[in-house]
Amino acid sequence: MYTTNIIEGVNRQFRKVTKTKSTFPSDESLLKMLYLSSQNIIKKCTMKYKNWDSIYNQLSIYFEGIL
Prior knowledge:
By secondary structure, this protein is an all-alpha fold. The chain has one domain. The protein is 70% helix and 0% strand. It has helices spanning 2-19, 27-44, 52-62. Helix 1 crosses helix 2 (27-44).
């Protein structure tokens, strides 16, 4: 239950960002937008979440070549 609320919150933030732009020129541009929004979400976080460091490291490896 606790983790589900966190994931739903992140998904809500992603929808908020992508809702304003109806189309993306490429898949890479969408990935960049999601990556940058995840960086903003991280800045807003005030609580420490279990295993977030591990998740963040995996995301930074996955999105390394995009930025």
